Amino acid sequence: MHGNFVWYELMTTDTKAAEAFYKKVVGWDARDADMPGVDYTLFSMGDHLVAGLMTMPEGALELNVPPAWLGYVAVDDVDTAAARLAGEGGTVHREPDDIPGVGRFAIVTDPHGAAFALFKGTGEPPPSLDQMAPGNIGWHELMAGELDSAFAFYSKLFGWTKDQAMDMGEMGVYQLFAHNGQAIGGMMTKPKEVPAPYWLYYFNVEALDAAIDRAQSEGAQVVVEPMEVPGGAWIVQCTDPQGAFFALVAPKR
């Protein structure tokens, strides 16, 4: 599991509204996690847990931190991985800590400032959905501070390998990366107009236009218009009603 994305978490300002939004747009079910002292919602697709939802921590808005999705990457040992990350120029923002009965985690950023989490679960991991199954997260995209150094950082930390590379002209190279031989995402140097590096997560839906209609009817804003990508899939990038950035991917319009 080391180096694989295993969980996703939305921290937002209105959890009830966000729950209703993603249930309608992506098709997830939702239920309370029943964690003592913590208001945490679990999104699922059938019997498969996919993501979590919680209210943003106090003080985050005062620091101008917007609602956002956070990806959790599995590691063999959280403390070792956090120390290694710091040694490679990353920053540990929340030191390794335990979630009773769930696992151990740390909140970190890469050397350019893109946020993600390290995670080691308790016990055997549950069976996962197929990468491109409806309701799963089919793609992980990094708008990096600088592609070559970012790829070297993640490769050293997680063992990711280079897959195809696509020349995007003036935008630069879009480098696909693989985990255990399977392409799971891509990264490129962020455009100059983008203020900071970030990770973006693509939620699988069955048909793009219908999902866009559902999203816009619930208050989403389309940031990057629908486009076809190599391989024939269709994507769109949006912000949800609370301002969190997300994307959708589908095999057809």
TrEMBL record:
Residues 4-121, 136-251 form the VOC domain. InterPro entries: Anthracycline_SecMetBiosynth, Glyas_Bleomycin-R_OHBP_Dase, Glyas_Fos-R_dOase_dom, VOC_core. Gene3D superfamilies: 2,3-Dihydroxybiphenyl 1,2-Dioxygenase, domain 1. This is Putative hydroxylase. It comes from Sinorhizobium sojae CCBAU 05684. The lineage of its organism: Bacteria, Pseudomonadati, Pseudomonadota, Alphaproteobacteria, Hyphomicrobiales.
